[in-house]
């Protein structure tokens, strides 16, 4: 029988335990996905680390998932996720890509150079808010600017309740301020563009160099990809931290609630629009556009809000259509297979 107290160091919580049947409570082995490759999962149980081959019949996994194994370390089932980060797959693919699961806190790393971008930050915040995870904004490379407060004010202008922390990713003394979120059993994901300092931050928190790092290109302030896979790493504090590859393209999908939470000021203003279906374009009596005219709302913020809503609607509709097509195709295959068995049965009788 599993010692659930030992599992807590891996992030086990009552949310997962209450999903177990009596038989699973006594016989199944909970395991957490700590690394993922194309056809292999690396998982950790209360007593050991092992690998599992991914079969076509299995569900889609992502780092951070909890699953159940039998006594022979064979996959039984995937537990429901408490939180999940996902996006539309990059490029022209009509596909949903899972980023991570069962996260407690998201460190969003922003570099204080030409790569600093409020529109991109709002995109990350929408992703995090949709997952209902606490966002912490970390300002890296603060040595490149003279006035950090200017950047802090811009971010707090998006939401005065956001926690913003300038941090030197190379300095362990600077990262000590993150201790309140690095408690034993907590799981943290680090998000941000390439080259902003995510891997450097993780190496400092680990106290050793496990993640590859690379500087931002000086000619255009763009980053280089150094992390190419997602891995869940244990910290000395007892927390677990997940690095993610730099994502220059984060296409939102099924993220309407996250966008609404990120732009709650605009959502509140929209309640006073004359028309309930106001699109905040040129409709008469639009309280949102009036706020822009009065200087209470930035045009940039409204434009990004409308852009993300449109993007999410298009991607969500495309993915919903793809799911319906896949479901119909699956039914066709099953029907065809069933018909083939019937014909084979007739042939054998003849």
From TrEMBL:
Q: Which residues bind Zn(2+)?
A: 273, 278, 280, 286
**Source species taxonomy:** Bacteria, Pseudomonadati, Pseudomonadota, Gammaproteobacteria, Oceanospirillales
- Please give the family membership noted in the entry: Belongs to the TRAFAC class YlqF/YawG GTPase family. RsgA subfamily.
Kindly state what the record says about how the cofactor is bound. Binds 1 zinc ion per subunit.
Q: Which PANTHER family match?
A: SMALL RIBOSOMAL SUBUNIT BIOGENESIS GTPASE RSGA
| Protein name listed in UniProt | Small ribosomal subunit biogenesis GTPase RsgA
Domain CP-type G intervals:
95-250
Q: Which GO terms describe its cellular component?
A: cytoplasm
> Which co-factors does it depend on?
Zn(2+)
- Keyword tags: Cytoplasm, GTP-binding, Hydrolase, Metal-binding, Nucleotide-binding, Ribosome biogenesis, RNA-binding, rRNA-binding, Zinc
Organism of this sequence: Aliikangiella marina
Which EC numbers does the record give? 3.6.1.-
């Amino acid at each position: 029988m599993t010692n659930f107290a030992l599992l807590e160091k891996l992030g086990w919580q009552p949310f997962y335990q209450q999903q177990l049947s009596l038989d699973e409570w006594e016989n199944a082995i909970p395991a957490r996905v700590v690394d993922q490759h194309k056809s292999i999962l690396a998982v950790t149980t209360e007593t050991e680390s092992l690998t599992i081959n991914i079969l076509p019949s299995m569900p889609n996994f992502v780092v951070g998932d909890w699953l159940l194994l039998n006594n022979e370390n064979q996959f039984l089932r995937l537990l429901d996720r408490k939180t999940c980060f996902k996006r539309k797959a990059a490029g022209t693919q009509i596909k949903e890509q899972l980023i991570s699961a069962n996260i407690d806190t998201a460190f969003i790393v922003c570099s204080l150079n030409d790569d600093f971008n409020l529109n991109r930050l709002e995109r990350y915040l929408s992703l995090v808010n949709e997952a209902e995870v606490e966002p912490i904004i970390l300002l890296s490379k603060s040595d490149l600017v003279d006035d950090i407060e200017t950047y802090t004010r811009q971010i707090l202008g998006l939401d005065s309740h956001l926690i913003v922390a300038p941090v030197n990713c190379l300095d362990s003394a600077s990262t000590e301020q993150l201790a309140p979120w690095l408690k034993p059993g907590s799981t943290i994901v680090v998000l941000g563009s390439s080259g902003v300092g995510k891997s450097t931050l993780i190496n400092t928190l680990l106290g050793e160099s496990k993640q590859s790092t690379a500087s931002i290109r000086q000619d255009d302030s763009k980053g280089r990809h150094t992390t190419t896979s997602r891995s869940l790493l244990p910290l000395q504090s007892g927390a677990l931290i997940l690095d993610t590859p730099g994502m220059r393209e984060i296409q939102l999908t099924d993220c309407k609630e996250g966008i609404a939470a990120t732009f709650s000021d605009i959502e509140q203003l929209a309640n006073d629009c004359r028309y309930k279906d106001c699109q905040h374009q040129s409709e008469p009596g639009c309280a949102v556009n009036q706020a822009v005219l009065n200087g209470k709302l930035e045009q940039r913020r409204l434009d990004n809000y409308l852009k993300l809503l449109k993007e999410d609607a298009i991607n969500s509709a495309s993915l919903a259509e793809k799911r319906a097509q896949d479901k119909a195709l699956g039914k066709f295959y099953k029907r065809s297979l069933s018909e083939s068995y019937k014909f084979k049965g007739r042939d054998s009788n003849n």
